[in-house]
């Protein structure tokens, strides 16, 4: 962290502007050595300065340079941002000059990593930076900005503060039992505080599923026999001819995917090959892929043909449906010949001929995943596997404490478990961490962030 790093912070390609970011103790000195204009070492902090980037006497580009002095910067170090004309050759040339003058090429996510290590942001906020960059929906943006603003972090900090106060009281009772004016910490006191943490932590863990849905979206597998209208349903959801539709059974022989946003949540629809006895090796491979999608999807749509009687293949598919499935009876604009009885799954009748023919299915999906509730929520969720896993570990330790209290385990042993909860919650924030974890997390970031 004693060296100076640099990287291109904008997408590399043709554009109006590119930004080369420099951070570290020599950032301003390095930028000044290739700049023709004001003396950057003497300008005020948080100013934009006009001039030219030069290589000896050759003018490379006309630029605006932002100077931001530590500690009021993203990394808490001196930061320089060179705004040059967009283009691969110009941008790379300026970065090359910066590196020749003593900067090191930043590793992926290293600017954000420095912000974390220098105490500018915690680990939840750091992870939200990448989530904000990757956001594909308005709900994903809102979730990320809530994390970046520290709302979720403050909830976890509040839990840790309550645990810290409880630990302090226990320590005083253990170390100074002779003092009469201190509050005696009993098992009832501990139980009251732990019950509060348990209740609130359980709420966060349960609601974290909403955060995962917002962040990752939902995968929907459309399955069924050939020629029941699976591809037509996919095309109607996407409002485009993504999948080929014909009257020939087995037209879809491989996985066809498409994404659409419903009530602000990203849905990845997967149209699978028709389930039947394969007629050739290509179709067999497609059907095997379909079976895999069948077991890994967040939602399975089993499509049946309203205009045909229930077949043996249909019955087998119904009998093997997972809980997270909807039976979709397609072609309800035609004569009804099918009869479906299933008490375990919702049954929805649709058609792809009418412009609003699949609206009943959309509404059922919205209800099934409580999308209206998610859309109107406050977005204070944990949203990735690391955070949720640590919260669940902390919750399991609470159960150990409850068992200990019931068995009247000595307070000093209960204190050990309380410290373990405090530490697990600290790992969510990054107050305690391993170097390997931090290195792994930030390698997932883009290079200039």
Helix content: 40-55%
Percent of sequence in beta strands:
15-25%
Low-confidence stretches: 242-254
The number of E-state strands comes to: 13
Briefly note the structural class of the backbone: alpha/beta
Identify the overall geometry: flat
H/E series, N to C? EEHEEEEHEHHHHHEHEEHEHEEHHHHH
| CATH-scheme architecture of the largest domain | 3-Layer(aba) Sandwich
Q: What is the topology, as strand order, of the major beta sheet?
A: 3-4-5-6-2-1-7
CATH H-level name of the largest domain... which superfamily?
P-loop containing nucleotide triphosphate hydrolases
Our count of domains comes out at 3
**Cα-atom radius of gyration:** 29 Å
**CATH C-level of the largest domain:** Alpha Beta
Report the biggest beta sheet as strand number plus sense, adding barrel if it closes: 7 strands, mixed
How many separate helices? 15
Distance between the termini: 16 Å
Mean pLDDT value = 85
Report what the structure shows.
Mean pLDDT is 85; it is low at 242-254. The protein has three domains: 5-121, Gyrase A, domain 2 (2-Layer Sandwich); 138-213 and 384-430, Four Helix Bundle (Hemerythrin (Met), subunit A) (Up-down Bundle); 222-259 and 270-356, Rossmann fold (3-Layer(aba) Sandwich). 45% of the residues lie in helices and 18% in strands. The protein contains 15 helices and 13 strands. It is flat, with a radius of gyration of 29 Å. The strands form two sheets. Strands 3-4-5-6-2-1-7 form a seven-stranded mixed beta sheet, with helices on one face. By secondary structure, the chain is an alpha/beta fold. The chain has helices at residues 27-33, 88-100, 110-117, 123-134, 138-148, 151-175, 187-216, 230-238, 281-296, 312-319, 359-368, 371-375, 385-406, 411-429, 435-442, and strands at 5-8, 17-23, 35-37, 47-55, 58-68, 79-85, 104-105, 218-224, 256-262, 265-271, 299-305, 325-330, 346-349. α4 runs antiparallel to α5, α7 packs antiparallel against α13 and α13 (385-406) runs antiparallel to α14.
